């Protein structure tokens, strides 16, 4: 893989860049700013003088409290926070080009509150796009996704008043059933649906399975309906593009229009760092004309949001650089591989995508007490679980996995 923007920067280099960015933001002590309802964090509570702030550019950003309201990759933005907004713009461009394989300067995006918001933002944009471009009524537009898709898609359907169509997946391979997909599309068409908003997964939450967006695209083309495809990479977005280069779940694929990535999952960024990236020319469909008091384009679901979150993502990316990040991902994949080998040895059945760090084990092999002791997550909290998953994160070290495997083999815990 080649990188146009992504590199490693020393802590000192980062500090210099962030300090400069903060300088370009408004300084409440030196400038008159009578109109904006913002200021730095309450100095009575959060002292600016604390000695540890000197060494910590991210904490200094928190104290200055820049507001990143709106979208900074197009149009004008609030001028008061130009400095740190430029860093956010850099993050969006880096992710769209170096991770998601877009051409330079062809994407817009912003740092959302999370994957949920980014998925809703996508559905909102495409709903309006279909209404404006094809004169579609609300009851002619549907959301389409697999049965393993995150429930934020159902939230989006509920909020936007759209029909949600779910397609079954194969119980073993977690791959979309193409015949069932075709039937689902035809059935929706018969009820008057003519535009489809697809949420295609780049790693599902429970299994880590990856949908092929082209499967959706060809089924929809065969049925001669309009569609837009959004990729939900909230979990897989910082792993799959790296562990599976040459994949088709990114902007090199003309069928893909937008992507969600969550920095607060695999990237271990603070919460509030969901990332939404979309091809240029589409963000504008959710322009809120009534947002007259905000300079520039308020075309994001969230209004005011913290600029410190953008700086946090920027710092993580530039602290690791691409090679450091590859090493980290490969370490997690190595551990996942190790776990799968042990499960094979003891004959436990599981699903694992070869490029991801989730292992979903058939519940029949996992006594409830072990699932509880090892903090495994079931596929359902209301019924009898069919699967329990292990997500191999940074803190999931092999000695814990070793312990888990030997617990599974301990007499008194035979497979159910
Ligand atoms: C976690 C997750 C989401 C929701 O993200 P939040 O950041 O919790 O809002 C959406 N989709 C997938 C695939 C996820 O794993």
Q: Let me know the number of strands.
A: 11
CATH architecture assignment of the largest domain = 3-Layer(aba) Sandwich
Global shape: globular
What fraction of residues sit in β-strands?
A: 5-15%
Nearest-integer average pLDDT: 94
CATH topology of the largest domain: Aspartate Aminotransferase, domain 2
Terminal Cα separation, in Å? 46 Å
Number of domains: 2
Sheet with most strands: 7 strands, mixed
Give the CATH level 1 class of the largest domain.
Alpha Beta
Bound ligands, each once: pyridoxal-5'-phosphate
Estimated structural class = alpha/beta
Q: State the helix count.
A: 11
CATH homologous superfamily descriptor of the largest domain: Type I PLP-dependent aspartate aminotransferase-like (Major domain)
Secondary structure: helix percent: 25-40%
Q: List unreliable stretches of 5+ residues.
A: none
The succession of helices and strands, N to C, reads HHHEHEHEHEHEHEEHEEHEEH
**How large, in whole angstroms, is the Cα Rg?**
23 Å
Order of neighbouring strands in the sheet with most strands: 1-7-6-5-4-2-3
